[in-house]
């Protein structure tokens, strides 16, 4: 299990990359569907790693959740999904799946190779969140500790 995690970026590197991606996604949604003013709604939190509990120095994170206090209209939802795919695909995320897709209520989720997932939801408000997969902490990562 350690070798699997050693092939991944450490948690700090992964977090910085995901935060960059989320910033790009917020900017693109606002530029093309907005204006949308995004506000942080809950701070980043840290957790252990399900499935990797035997490996010391591991962590997963739920990054800051972002909220736009308004909904993406139904007639713009497909464009929002297209923007999400364009932004997240270069970061290794698969095509999102629709978890909810009904009038005035939409939600997609997509995963990357490390088990991270982002969700984009719109109903009364629009919410963007991301949870990382399991990564080694920088001090425990063999590429950082040498």
From TrEMBL:
It is found in: Cell membrane. The lineage of its organism: Bacteria, Bacillati, Actinomycetota, Actinomycetes, Pseudonocardiales. It comes from the Bacteria. It is a lipid-anchor. The keyword Lipoprotein applies. Keywords: Cell membrane, Lipoprotein, Membrane, Palmitate, Signal. InterPro entries: LppA/LppB/LprP (IPR032018). Its main location: membrane. This is LppA family lipoprotein.
